[in-house]
TrEMBL record:
This is 2Fe-2S iron-sulfur cluster binding domain-containing protein. Transmembrane segments: none annotated. Pfam families: FAD_binding_6, Fer2, NAD_binding_1. Keywords: FAD, Flavoprotein, Iron, Transport. Residues 1-93 form the 2Fe-2S ferredoxin-type domain. It comes from the Bacteria. It comes from Candidatus Seongchinamella marina. Residues 101-199 form the FAD-binding FR-type domain.
Amino acid sequence: MATVKIDGGDTTYDCGSEDTLLRAALRAGLQISYECNSGGCGCCKVRVLEGEVENLFPEAPALTERDLRKGFVLACQNKCASDGLVLKTRLETWNPKLLKPARFTATLAQKIEIASDLIEFVFSIEHDVDYLAGQFFMLNIPGVGERAYSNSSIATGSREIKFVIKRMPVGRGSNYLFTEAVIGDEFGCDGPYGHSYFRDDVKRDVVLVAGGSGLSPMLSILRYLSVNPSIARGVQFYYGAKALNELNEEYIREAAVGLGDRFSLSCGLSGSEEECGDWRGEKGFIHEVVDRNLQNYNDNEFYLCGPPPMTAAAQKHLMVERKVPFDQVHFDRFF
Ligand SMILES: Cc1cc2nc3c(=O)[nH]c(=O)nc-3n(C[C@H](O)[C@H](O)[C@H](O)COP(=O)(O)OP(=O)(O)OC[C@H]3O[C@@H](n4cnc5c(N)ncnc54)[C@H](O)[C@@H]3O)c2cc1C
Ligand code: FES
């Protein structure tokens, strides 16, 4: 166990050999800024003033040559490699809603095929794990390493955790889960992480916008609201896929069954005519479907999730074109 010091005060924290600088800080209740925990966004850049670090992912796309020359590292991809490490970073105030992440074992209990290359993986866990609807976990995949997956479960102290995962064409982690993982396999899991959780203290109605595997945290929010009718919000869900065989509207509606007529679903397909088949619904990117259908933008709280180009287009549409205040838009980008 090494001690890490934050420059400019008395703050120190312990960093075990298992942990990155970011995760050890979060376990200690210290809020280093972060978003993806996966080396993709660059939100967790910190400067190393003294001591050594070990970089676990030197090719991480979020760090440039210039950052490296200036002594920046990604807190989510570096371990402490010497005692007396001093970091320069501005700690944010800890949000009391957020739970400190912890490691646990998750046993694969079920694989439910939702659509083409889209499976919901159900894991059982021995002890209650507390997390918020929409948060994500790091799943340790044998021979591959850790990958971030957003939960699709109801949350709140449950002994079950679910993830909707998309098989990527040459993805090492997702292909392992689709083809090699079998019922009963045990996986290391770490979490919860993420700031794009459902805000149950905000009274505004809810708009969910997702593409592809961005479905996962949206199912979590829908299931959470379905079993908690006292949190009575209207929910509009805009879901985008490329091809008709990637869509399963019935599965989404089942998750929202407790919402009754407070729920509406608009799906859009963005693929070729051949991929869309006999689809008679909306066509185009999902932010375009939102644009054509949503009224009174500012009355809603927004949750966006999916690949970076999809979330970027939706953010631009909401925040720039429709002037929705930034604090009403929450998002996770799936790097
Ligand atoms: C916050 C968040 C939530 C996500 N939630 C979901 C979800 O619910 N469902 C879903 O299907 N996908 C989700 N993803 C995407 C998921 O984490 C994987 O990127 C995706 O499954 C592809 O992984 P792969 O191993 O199949 O592909 P690969 O191409 O093998 O790996 C892709 C990703 O793995 C990471 N990676 C690659 N090499 C290394 C390395 N050496 N060290 C550390 N990291 C490395 C990088 O983040 C990279 O983007 C999420 C991503 C993020 C950031
Ligand atoms: S949180 Fe470290 S790069 Fe995104």
